[in-house]
Amino acid sequence: xxxxxxxxxxxxxxxxxxxxxxxxxxxxxxxxxxxxxxxxxxxxxxxxxxxxxxxxxxxxxxxxxxxxxxxxxxxxxxxxxxxxxxxxxxxxxxxxxxxxxxxxxxxxxxxxxxxxxxxxxxxxxxxxxxxxxxxxxxxxxxxxxxxxxxxxxxxxxxxxxxxxxxxxxxxxxxxxxxxxxxxxxxxxxxxxxxxxxxxxxxxxxxxxxxxxxxxxxxxxxxxxxxxxxxxxxxxxxxxxxxxxxxxxxxxxxxxx
Length: 256
Prior knowledge:
Elements: E1 11-12, E2 16-20, E3 30-39, E4 42-49, E5 53-57, E6 64-74, E7 86-90, E8 105-106, E9 113-114, E10 124-133, E11 138-144, E12 148-149, E13 158-168, E14 173-175, E15 179-183, E16 192-193, E17 207-210, E18 219-224, E19 231-236, E20 240-241, E21 253-255
Parallel strand pairs: 1-7, 8-15
Antiparallel strand pairs: 2-5, 3-4, 3-6, 6-7, 9-12, 10-11, 10-13, 13-14, 13-15, 16-17, 17-20, 18-19, 18-21
């Protein structure tokens, strides 16, 4: 008898696979078909059936490439040559999705989100990016095939959670750890010095000022001495400053 190559899916993540083939060509009539599963040319499973189909259990098989081949035996005992192999790739492992690269604090309207290409045995079919606001509302979600996302709408101010998923060609879904972005486009209210500095004999006076309404604001104090160039002091979020070196006599100008 003559047999053709069996038909199998090229890629699957299923625990079972249905294998079919055309009936063998033989005038004597076919008694049985023998279906062989092999990996790297080495047979690892064999089943015999009288019908031109078989269901093969792959639940204990590792991810990888497998080949199915077929032989038929007729009523006189003649055995056909082995059919050409049919290849199947088994992939049940979710993609390894890397952490998206985002600006933790930004004032951009539509900041770009990038990430390294996900690692996967059978290849990535598409990525899905989901953006949610601080109250849990969905801001935007989209499927793309590149590893760069450009928002379609201007970001609202506040916290934005970035969720990144990758689906491989077999249908497995991987997910990266979430990233949090803070969008802030509002300038802080103007800080003010507490009061004019009165004449003082203290060479190390403490300079204080009122804070702004922005909890994330940091401060820079500019001091112009009576006979020198201005210099600046960064105080972070602290709303007071005491000179480390004693001040000389004269009038100093302060700007915050």
